[in-house]
Amino acid sequence: MEPVRLVVYSDYLCPWCYNASVRMEQLERELGDAVRVEWRSYLLRPNASPGRDLEKFREYTRSWLRPAGEPDSGEFRVWEGDAGPPSHSIPAHRVAKAAARISQEAFRSLHRGLLRAYFAENRDISDRATLRELWGELGLPAEALAVADAPEVLAQVRAEHAEALEL
């Protein structure tokens, strides 16, 4: 019997998407091969907006406490420190697509890592150095990260976002 295919459009800057990811992982553990989750890009911030006001952003992150209170939620922490907020999510989506080209397990590990890095560790997941660091922390092959810069990877991210807007 073919597995049930669930297509999920998600953004790495969305706290509700983080919770959905935690729940989808649970579903996969419970149902095993009966379900297959396919993650696609949806861009809450499709264009870079550098220089966002840090105090306003910190105030915004207090709203993360709402999804943090949901059952089966991810781990959230209100933004601390002086590191600025992510300017947009395209870099994170590109890196996730590069991990997916290695294996499904590499993608899952990076997907989980990106969400945790942003929401629980307050790391700027639009920053190349942060993404490279996370990639290394997860033990992914350094040379495979270059795929994230390929024009076809950006085209895939944008196409998935456009597809989501058409639904």
What does this structure look like?
With 167 residues, the chain is mostly helical. The chain has one domain: Glutaredoxin (3-Layer(aba) Sandwich), CATH 3.40.30. 50% of the residues lie in helices and 8% in strands. It has seven helices and two strands. Helix 1 (15-31) links the parallel strand 1 (4-10) and strand 2 (35-41). The mean pLDDT is 95.
Short description:
This protein is mainly alpha-helical and 167 residues long. The protein has helices at residues 15-31, 54-61, 65-68, 90-102, 104-119, 128-137, 151-166, and strands at 4-10, 35-41.
What is the beta-strand fraction?
5-15%
CATH class: Alpha Beta
What characteristic shape results from the CA principal axes?
Answer: globular
Give the structural class: mainly alpha
Total number of domains: 1
Strand count: 2
The helical percent reads: 40-55%
Q: Keyphrases for this structure?
A:
single chain; 167 residues; mainly alpha; Glutaredoxin; two-stranded parallel ribbon; 7 helices; globular
What is the fold's blueprint, element by element?
Blueprint: E1 4-10, H1 15-31, E2 35-41, H2 54-61, H3 65-68, H4 90-102, H5 104-119, H6 128-137, H7 151-166
Parallel strand pairs: 1-2
Helix pairs in contact: 1-5, 4-5
